[in-house]
Each structure stands twice: as C-alpha cells, then as structure tokens.
Amino acid sequence: MKKAKKVISIGKIAKRTGVAVSAIRFYEEAGLVTPERNKSGQRVFESSDIRRISFIIIAQKLGFSLKQIKAQMDILPDGRTPSLKDWEKISQSFSIDIEDRILALTRLKEKLTGCMGCGCLSLSHCALYNTDDMAAQSGTGPRYLLQKKQAKQIKVD
User: Fold this and answer.
1) What is the pTM of this model?
2) How many CB atoms lie within 10 A of CB 14?
3) Which residues on adjacent β-strands are paired with residue 8?
4) Which residues pair with 46 in a beta bridge?
5) Could you tell me the domains of the chain?
6) What is the pLDDT of residues 112-154, one digit of tens each?
7) Distance CA 16, CA 10 (A)
8) Measured between alpha carbons, how far is 12 from 119 in angstroms, rounded to an integer?
9) d(Cα 49, Cα 73) in Å, to the nearest integer?
10) What gap in Å lies between CA 13 and CA 57, rounded to an integer?
11) What residues contact 110, with CB distance under 8 A and at least 6 apart?
C-alpha cells in the first residue's frame, strides 16, 4: 500500500514561509511551484515546497529575477526542490553574478560624484559645450558608467 503524501494548504504554506498567498499564486503562474489540487479543487503543496519557496525568497533577496531563479530550478532533475548539494552548485553560479554586480556598483560609486556618465565629462561641460559628443563613439547611454573598463576620458577645454 502506497503511503499518502502529507500536503499543506496554500494558507498554511503562506504562513510558514511568510509569503503572501497572492505571491505563491504568482510563483505558480511563473512555473516556480506546482501545487496539486485536492478533491475540492484547492491548491495543496508538499512540505518540500516550503524549502522551494524559501529558495525563491533567498534568490530574490540576492537580486535575481524570477526568470533567473526558474532557469536554475529547471536544471534540477524531476523538478525537485534544491538539496544542499544543488545549492552549492547554484550558489557558485550566483556568486559569479554577484561579483560582477559588485564590480559594476563599485565603478558606479567611484564615478558618481565626478561624472553623470552621460559622456559629457563634467556637469560644467554638458552636451551644449560638447557638441561633437565624443562619448557617442562608444555607444548609446551613459557610456562611462556602463563600460567594464575605464574609458579613456577626453579632456574638454
């Protein structure tokens, strides 16, 4: 005889995880959780979904989008909840992304007070004085803040 799975209602899983019921429904629509339906048609979750939703919350707090989180979860066999071993692999991938963001934010912080990043080189020499717009040669947007390597700044007199 097969042992019945212990299931949890959406209200109980919301209370246990601290996530609003509406957010859990949104996670379902995004394919991050897949509850079953009981005879009454209500959503019911397995206890392992507590860990799954906790993983989603942690990854979101680290700045990852639901699309990025889903991509990581889709790698897991049979749609299972991440185990400790899975988390170790996923965290390596997340760490690389976080390091890239830290470097980008550090560059932004260093340049923030001296340059808006628009390419004009200084607030006192805006595009009105920089009519040749030398920064445009590097592309659109705030070039000096977006470039990974320090752009060679052109002195404007």
Assistant:
1) 0.63
2) 19
3) 45
4) 7
5) 7-108 (1.10.1660.10), 113-152 (no CATH)
6) 655 555 555 554 555 444 456 666 677 666 666 666 554 444 4
7) 10
8) 53
9) 12
10) 13
11) none
Give 118's contacts (C-beta < 8 A, 6+ positions apart). Answer: 126, 127, 135, 142
CA distances from 100 to 34, 59, 97, 147 (A): 32, 16, 5, 12
Q: How far apart are CA 88 and CA 85, in angstroms?
A: 5
Number of Cβ within 10 Å of residue 33's Cβ equals 23
Alpha-carbon distance 147 to 98, whole Å? Answer: 17
User: Is the separation of the CB atoms in 45 and 11 below 8 Å?
Assistant: no
Burial class (CB in 10 A: 0-12, 13-18, 19+), 89: middle
DSSP helix/strand/coil, 114: coil
Q: Which residue has the tokens 């185990």?
A: 83
| Whole-number Å distance between alpha carbons of 74 and 35 | 16
